[in-house]
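pls read this protein:
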Amino acid sequence: MTTLLALDTATEACSVALLHDGRVLSHYEVIPRLHAQRLLPMIQQLLGEAGLPLSAVDAIAFGRGPGAFTGVRIAIGVVQGLAFALDRPVLPVSDLAVLAQRAHREQGVTQVAAAIDARMDEIYWGCYRLEQGEMHLAGVEAVLPPEQAALPRDAAGQWYGAGTGWGTFAARISVAVSGQSADLLPHAEDLLALARFAWARGEGVPADQAQPIYLRDNVATPKAPN
């Protein structure tokens, strides 16, 4: 049986999840600015509950962003350190996809407009459709002003809004949704669900290919005035 470890620190939430022998264990905490202190202890606690050594893990999945610059870097650093030490592959997963997968798990929705507050008066945006249990990107992921957010050209049916971008900018996002979870954050349990599909497709990559996706180049500096 495959054993997968998943972790995410791209937003205010810090979470880890473990798949072993067909069973999923997870821990989830909303702890802004404490990810670096809590992540490794959470992993150790989870492995302890499962009665497994770290060496039993076949691959490590992680939220590759988009999200907070520091948070994404914390995940990358921990994943690379563990994966190099164990000589295990890694599975990068989009945090927007993780949001969509969580909305499906909790709300039963099959089409999700995921939005994460990107600061600097912008949002990280991606639209996802459920296909055989897995949320797939429809179009592209982007960072943009809320007013520029749009559904895919072939969009039909009802869409659900998920993520902090809806909490901050709902009045400026001109996309009709059937409902929304504006406080939804990525959860490693849903990251793990997506990682299982990726692992089955053979999408694991070497640890040095664990790279962040920020969607914007000037992640640490405000925009210059016009």
About this structure: DSSP finds five helices and eleven strands in the chain.
